Amino acid sequence: MSYNSLNIDSIKPLINKHAKYFMRFLDLLPANLASHDCTRGTIVFFAVCGLDVLNSLDLIKAKRQHIIDWIYGNIVIPRPEERCCSGFQGTRSVMIKSDNEELLENVRCFQWGHLAMTYTSIGILVTLGDDLSRLDRKTIVDGVAAVQRNDGSFSACIDGSENDMRFVFCAAAICHMLDYWGDVSKEKMYQFIMNSLRYDFGFSQQAEGEGHGGTTYCALAALELSGQLHRVNTNVLEGIKRWCIFRQVNGFQGRPNKPADTCYSFWIGAALQILNAFHLTDYACNRSYVLETQDNIAGGFAKWPQSTTDPFHTYLGICGLTFTGEHDLAEIMPSLNISIRAYENLKRLHSKWAYQNVEDGYQGTYRNMATQLTETKISVDDDDHDLITSPLIRAQ
Ligand SMILES: [Zn+2]
User: How many angstroms separate the CA atoms of 315 and 263, rounded?
Assistant: First the structure.
């Protein structure tokens, strides 16, 4: 029996097993996850960010550059005449190498960025300490703006998909991480989110749906990341807190009358962290439930005790445990779902970009002054044809 039959009441003795569990997904995709090949980037996200939260990133030091190069290899950049399909893909299965031009053009029709893959790819890069210098931030955000719908929601990709709160969160996370919002409408995003608030104060995927734990996290995280959480009325915030707190059974459930599930210790836990209300929950019951779902032989967490583990529930289970102050785990930033350590890397990049913008601004001002000076000289020497056409003067 590989389930927690030893009743281990701490994650500490199993940290190495959980780390090895994540590492296996970086080397191969198990047969039972083959259908997830097109979203392989998210599995790498759970593995890399999971190792980070376990303070075990050193274990993949030798693989670090390879993972970074693999992620950058998944970028799609539109050609000038193409639709705005920029972003990251989650797989290389449609990024083939061939000398056959026709084949390459045909495959090109199936290459487009996906918001969830773009969010997780950037999350992996900052977790690995990359400086994002191989990214054109504007091009990536143009791809995000291109999939925003009139109602403020977002599709996952330019080729069409569902449009709901999951992709609203991904869009907000990408723009926040790149510190650039371009043509993305925060106002429309806000209206979509608030239109999805239900009578019981849970958020649904879209208007008239059912309040849901994962969706409520996406809505609150998007509001915080877009700097709009303060716009929500205090009474409404209190109602949302109440809805979230009532989702605790021992661990947390995603909706009323559903059983507890490991991942909601993150979705609801992080939502309450964003609202500064997690302290109102029962830490011991939550922690005990999540620990019950760990596999003490092969590592990993499942959604329920005695169920099959998977990287999604393993990462979110571990993140959920960080909220209860579990020792030996790195703190995480709730609204981005990456470690505080990775978030600090990101903030350093934001400062660097802001400094570069100021520098560019100064250089732009200097260029404008030089241009005005050139034009003045040209007008003064207007009757001297040689001076006007001199490339040296134009280059001043
Ligand atoms: Zn789950």
Answer: 8
